[in-house]
Amino acid sequence: MNSRESILQAIRKLPREKKNLPELPDFGKNSDLLAEFCQSITRNAGEVLSLEDFQEWMKEKNFKKVISLVPDYASLSTQAMPEDPHALDSLDLAIVEAPFGVAENGAMWLDETSLCHRVLPFIAEHLVIVLRSAHLFPTLHQAYAQLQDASTGFGVFIAGPSKTADIEQSLVIGAQGAKSLWVVLVD
Amino acid sequence: MNHPQAAAAFLKDQARASWHDETLWYVRDKRDAASKRLPEWEDLRTLASDIKEHTLSQLDYYLEKFEEKALENGIQVYWAKDAAEHNQIVLQILQSKECKALVKSKSILTEECHLNPFLEKNGIAVVDSDLGERIVQFLNQPPSHIVLPAIHLKKKEIAELFHEKLGTEKGNEDPKYLTDAARIHLREKFLSAKVAITGVNFGIAETGEFVVCTNEGNADMGVHLADVHIACMGIEKIIPRRKDLGVFLRLLARSATGQSITTYSSHFRSPRKGKEIHLILVDNGRTAQLSRSNYRSSLKCIRCGACMNTCPIYRRSGGFSYGSTVPGPIGSILSPGLDVKKYSTLPFASTLCGSCTDVCPVKINIHEQLYAWRQEITQAQGWSGKELSIKLAKGIFTSPLAYRVSGKILRAALKSLPHSLIYHPLNAWGKGRDLPQPPASTFSEWYQKNRL
Lengths: 187, 452
Known about the structure:
The structure holds 2 protein chains of 2 kinds. Chain A is an alpha/beta fold. Chain A has helices at residues 3-12, 33-43, 51-61, 120-123, 140-147; strands spanning 47-49, 66-68, 93-97, 101-102, 108-111, 126-132, 136-137, 154-158, 163-164, 172-173, 180-186. The relative contact order of chain A is 0.20. By secondary structure, chain B is an alpha/beta fold. Chain B folds into 3 domains: 1-37 and 304-382, no CATH class; 39-284, NagB/RpiA/CoA transferase-like (Rossmann fold, 3-Layer(aba) Sandwich), CATH 3.40.50; 391-450, no CATH class. The longest helix of chain B has 23 residues, at 14-36. Chains A and B meet through helix 1, helix 5, strand 8 and strand 9 of A and helix 2, helix 3, helix 4, helix 8 and helix 10 of B.
């Protein structure tokens, strides 16, 4: 008997009690989603920018290598998307758009259909996520309801910049992924 | 292994032990604050527990469904009955790719299987890419905590280590500086690795996808640059539906570190074009634990580490004192299931205060299971010193004369005996504690004198 069969057999021969799979309540609430979302992003050590602030910020930072996948800001790109994702190593800034965000924790959904390379939001030194302020859900429950039929090969909730507290529990922003996260809220 | 002995060794450095205790309590505090921000917290715990109970009651069905969907998605699925088979499967994949070096993100399962030493023996270099795990790997140590692998180390030690291994400035202990050095070091590893290994936080039967959670982004940096992604998953990590993730992701990070969610929650459904995902489903004692009605619900564990952070014993004895891959209260239930002789002291490394049960996001009755293991282990050992003292106490408490006489003797002894005789090695209570000051009079004497 192969291991697959022996594992399944070992489970099958156990006496079992019937235990029902619970239905999930919605847990939705009518709070100020935008305020809660901004608070969550700040708590996660990310930054929220208005469109004007973002334009100002771009001028000030003057990044050398930028890839923007947001059609409205395509002109911010300084280079084309390379074919090999390894070539993204020196990228200063990636600008992507999230279809929605979650107020309770600041998580924003990105999937590979809008990323070109899966590694893009991780490998870039800094990350900007553009989000429509109306596209907010109160909790992850509504977010997963939205994702029910999505079937892309890879998707990720990103809630802040890469971080670690592995050295004496001191929070350090910028571990292996993007060193900063900027959320640009648009109407 | 022997927990009391190992704990005594940890406690020799009092200052460090106090720091360890306080640091973990700080994490526990953050968990409390995060949980209290959600009015539905207790409902979520109940839902998570019920979902896991249901899944465990039909684990065969969900595993087959998960496999079927994963195969449809283009993921290659393997089954391993134990650690040796798991390691062999990984090695075979690596050999077929002629891979000599790989990056690995945090996976408690591969620690449990001792994958790193096995691969190294077979000439394959493994780089743990989580910062804490890289630190303990440099020191040739296992992680001392499942979420905070290097929590037993001070930044001074890490600074010395990085000076030696990564060439950082001598004496620079700034966590930001050290983290930056590790980032540069690991970046180079990510860019050159052809194979990346990850653990799995949740496998979703409905869709055949799996979810990996990190704060550092190290799992994603590894797998999205490699040609081959090997995901190692315990069979208890299955959940039925994608929407169940809403419940579990809301609980996991809040319980672990007090964050509302980890920075990255990555959902892998199919490989990139031309690339591969291999997923290994591992039993290694899980079906045996499932068959033990007293302990089967320990398989609900989602590895958040909350029970460790709150445990008065874990905080004061350190992760290494448990001598097992998963330390702390939950580890003290899981490890005896793997080898009851080796881990026989672990269920006793608890005050049975129940705090672990109170914070557990999937409502495992941890302290009750610890108590159940104690019954089994004590019976198997046949004799215990405690039993003798309980019998003696029974004799004293059932005879008023014996009670009066022995009380007098003890009070006199405590007053007059030399310190060395009272705190002799047989007096386990006196280790690290002071015995009480004997009272001036007994309650009966006081009552005789003061009654109206």
